[in-house]
Design brief:
401 residues, Rossmann fold, Helicase, Ruva Protein, domain 3, Arc Repressor Mutant, subunit A, five-stranded parallel β-sheet, 10% strand
Length: 401
């Protein structure tokens, strides 16, 4: 055990600038997103001439550079026009998940004296209109993870209606979502107002991820402190899983931390392989803890059934691990029972199927369709992480224990 912090800080590290390897770091260049950057720039560029930027919707899986691209472009916009005629509100909808919270946050960003608790939405709306009209501002509202807003159609209606009520200036929306099927849930009126321009971000391939990690490692690691094979392995793992750049960066960062903890240098394939387990668990915890309640309950039902064992043993399409697969019907039955435990009204089977699709997209479960003769058309479901840990995470989230 070290005797002091000074001893820890004096040890040689593989890192020079650890923050560069953080998924939240915005680099000076975003490789392999040049086309997307140009399209976002074209959408917001009218603001530089006092015009209204087009509404824009961006979607794609986690770690495909959506948020980084938007922040990169908006930083450039503010540099060129100084942020006076085109002010920006960047809102994380995981934290501000209702129309009220979003409206209050926008007012807090720009006219904080009127953002006090207790005021209603209509008060925030009127103050915002007055502020915009005063000198004809073009407000850009970025809704990151927009699908997390519970009353989203109401929010979109409120914000888009403002353009009808304003005599000068305007409000433009830029929505970002990890869910490729998100727009299907929107009211048709909301969809037509929001989706003036759409951009889909595709996952990175292994080569692209390797170039991203290589660029970051040259600034983040000491010279010679990470082997090229470790970078390639982290890239290959992430490409195989989801094409997620955040995941690749976490693997390399955690691999460097493991090397530091042991006083080993350079970072090798072995460190990246060891990093994979802890990173996977962290990613799962983060993903589960931020899911809407009913998706957590579905996951809870899957974890419970996995631990207890399916009533229909070995129906996994002949898979040698078939006993770990569950039928969607039995999962739905357990979901209904579990909803009552958490004092929630269970949703319909149609919503349940949508929850399964979302969980699969997030990599928390895997599903396969049944073959002919297997109890009609159903799906086999398998949890992707430790069932015991998933159960405990959901119980802690929904029961506070």
């Amino acid at each position: 055990m070290p005797d002091s912090f000074k001893e820890i800080l004096s040890r040689e590290s593989v890192f020079v600038k650890r923050d560069v390897l953080s998924p939240h770091y915005i680099p000076g260049k975003l490789p392999h997103r040049e086309k997307e950057i140009e399209r976002v720039m074209r959408s917001v560029s009218p603001a530089l001439e006092g015009g209204k930027p087009r509404n824009l919707f961006i979607y794609g899986k986690t770690g495909t550079g959506k948020t980084s691209t938007v922040k990169y472009v908006l930083n450039k916009l503010q540099e060129e026009e100084s942020g006076k005629s085109a002010p920006i509100s960047f809102i994380n909808c995981r934290l501000y998940g209702s129309r009220y919270k979003v409206m209050q946050k926008i007012v807090q960003d720009h006219i904080p004296d009127f953002a006090k608790p207790g005021y209603g939405i209509s008060f925030f709306y009127e103050r915002l209109l007055d502020w915009i009209e005063k000198d004809g501002k073009q407000l850009i509202v970025v809704l990151d993870e927009v699908d997390m807003v519970k009353d989203l159609d109401d929010l979109l209606y409120t914000l888009t209606r403002s353009n009808d009520d304003l005599k000068k200036g305007g409000v433009s929306l830029l929505g970002i979502s990890n869910r490729l099927n998100f727009k299907e849930k929107l009211d048709p009126r909301s969809m037509s107002s929001l989706l003036e321009t759409e951009i889909v971000f595709s996952p990175y391939n292994s080569r692209e991820l390797a170039s991203i990690l290589d660029a970051r490692s040259k600034t983040g690691f000491a010279k010679g402190a990470v082997e090229e094979s470790a970078i390639n392995l982290a890239s290959a793992i992430a490409a195989q899983e989801t094409g997620d750049a955040r995941y690749a960066l976490k693997l390399l960062l955690r691999g460097g931390e493991i090397a530091d903890e042991r006083g080993e240098r350079p970072v090798t394939d072995k460190h990246v392989e060891e990093a994979r387990k802890s990173v996977d668990e962290g990613v799962a915890t983060d993903a589960i803890s931020t899911l809407p309640d009913h998706q957590q309950i579905v996951l809870y039902a899957i974890s419970k059934l996995t631990l207890r064992g399916s009533r229909y043993s070995r129906l996994g399409n002949g898979d040698s691990d078939g006993e770990n697969y569950l039928l969607s019907g039995e999962v739905y039955e357990d979901y209904v029972d579990s909803s009552k435990k958490f004092h929630k009204m269970p949703r319909s089977a149609r919503w349940f199927r949508q929850y399964l699709n979302d969980l699969e997209m997030l990599g928390l479960i895997t599903m396969v369709d049944s073959g002919k003769g297997q109890r009609g058309h159903t799906r086999f479901i398998k949890i992707a992480y430790s069932a015991e840990k998933v159960r405990d995470i959901v119980e802690k989230q929904l029961m506070g224990g």
